[in-house]
Design a protein that fits this description.
Elements (H helix, E strand, L loop, with lengths): L5 E5 L1 H7 L10 E6 L4 E5 L2 E8 L5 E8 L3 E7 L8 E7 L6 E5 L5 H12 L2
């Protein structure tokens, strides 16, 4: 499941307002990232992948990954020539990782810290 485009940071408060109907009671967003049309939310319970489909983007798939289903993940920081950071997430039952690309403006260490906090439980 690969989404194309580079992610940038969204204010978690704005994301909570925009995606309030997706959140469970008391669920909090710790990190939010916008791709060209899609989004990634890291809450205190799960990772939510928001995939806008079709030409108009009216049809939307919301993919919820509970942290307990993440078996491991890897981050690759941006370099001098490769300006993008990458995140790979392996989910139980799938040999192929979910891959996300973040622009240099996103603190990939923050993304890793959020995942570490909740995946390691």
């Amino acid at each position: 499941m690969a989404l194309f485009g580079n992610a940038h940071t969204i204010d978690p408060g704005k994301a909570a307002q925009e995606y309030a109907r997706l959140l469970g009671q008391g669920e909090q967003i710790y990190g939010a990232y916008q791709l060209i049309r899609d989004a990634i939310l890291l809450t205190d319970r799960r990772m939510i992948l928001i995939d806008k489909q079709g030409l108009t983007g009216k049809k939307v798939e919301y993919h919820s990954l509970p942290y307990r289903s993440i078996t491991h993940f890897a981050v690759e920081t941006a370099g001098h020539f490769d300006l993008d950071a990458e995140l790979k997430i392996w989910v139980s039952g799938s040999a192929t990782p979910i891959e996300k690309t973040f622009t240099k403006g996103v603190n990939i260490y923050e993304v890793q810290a959020i995942l570490t906090q909740f995946v390691a439980r």
